[in-house]
């Protein structure tokens, strides 16, 4: 990256970090069902913001996909028992605010604690949920997809954010590389991971896409960080920093792979 681009990225980083400092609200957290209630009590965001102030991302429609929801809690905090679904939504809402400050229009695939599937669908619940998320993204003409998750592992020592892109997709790899670097730069995790290719339903829609594992709920120290509003605000700022760095890259960006027919059961995410 040339000195000019590096300077612009440093400026963008400063803008995003300054914006993140404005947020002083935090959610009251406790274990299990009470934690879910605390997360879902916050005001729901609309599915799509149709207007946004002029900024560095003006004209870009970005899908934020808070993973899991409803019956599907996702990963669970090893100590607190807090499910990831509420944390994912909180990070997405914080990221939404910062992206809009940079001029982007934002689409949320869910705005509260629910899954996007019927109670008794004719197909698997998870498949219908993923199909409906994909439909929202496509119907709103999104040019970028950011799917927000929390990680877990059987061993308790694993830690650090990790970004996944569609295997074999240069457009996704470029976005994931910028995102991974930004998260390391902003969060300074003990384990500095590399972006990896993966097979995830949400990444196969024919637009640059990443799945962001913000940290490990199975790691005691990282779980404690993830349960604080201050750290989730830093995560949101790092995600926006990654988008800005990607947008600032010079030259023509590679085209994403075409949409894949994923009518079979998707992998768990």
Write structural notes for this entry.
By secondary structure, the protein is of the alpha/beta class. The chain has a single domain, classed as Aminopeptidase (3-Layer(aba) Sandwich). α2 runs parallel beside α3 and α5 crosses α7. The radius of gyration is 17 Å and the shape is globular. The N terminus is likely disordered.
SSE order, one letter for each helix or strand: HHEHEHEEHEEHH
CATH topology: Aminopeptidase
Radius of gyration: 17 Å
The helix tally amounts to: 7
What is the mean pLDDT? 84
CATH-level-2 architecture:
3-Layer(aba) Sandwich
Main sheet strand line-up: 2-1-3-6-4-5
Biggest beta sheet attributes: 6 strands, mixed
CATH C-level category: Alpha Beta
Helix content, binned percent: 25-40%
Question: What percent of residues are in strands?
Answer: 5-15%
Low-confidence stretches: 1-46
Q: What's the layout of helices and strands?
A:
Elements lengths: L2 H19 L10 H9 L20 E6 L17 H18 L3 E4 L16 H15 L4 E8 L10 E5 L3 H18 L8 E3 L10 E8 L3 H7 L2 H20 L21
Core attributes:
269 residues; alpha/beta; Aminopeptidase; 7 helices; 13% strand
Short description:
The chain is α/β, with parallel strands linked by helices and 269 residues long.
